[in-house]
Amino acid sequence: MKGIVITxxxxxxxxxxxxxxxxxxxxxxxxxxxLSAEDNPDDFVEVLKEAVKEVDTGDGAVVxxxxxxxxxxxxxxxxxxxxxxxxxxxVVTGVNLAMILQILAVREAGDPSIxxxxxxxxxxIADLKGILKANL
Length: 136
Description:
The chain has six helices and four strands.
């Protein structure tokens, strides 16, 4: 089963992890890493390395970052840079709750596809008022 790391600026990653528990309960191999303004990026790279090691029990890990090219993502790029040839770690940016719920729903059955996770994230973004007007 793939491990999961969620990383963000501030406490968003922890909030997503806690919210996912409402749907799936406590989950093994899942960790949040939150970067605060006081954190040193070099130290945060080490935090991410340790988090990936902790959640990867043999099947690899998927790391979710809050935004493309934000500091948590850039730190994760440094982690990847040390082992770019490895297929053990996948990184998805623009994390939202729909993506996390999707991976939790399918990860025990096998490797989740990145495309499926991205689609879940995209599908969860909508104009509710427009949808309601279109269905009246």
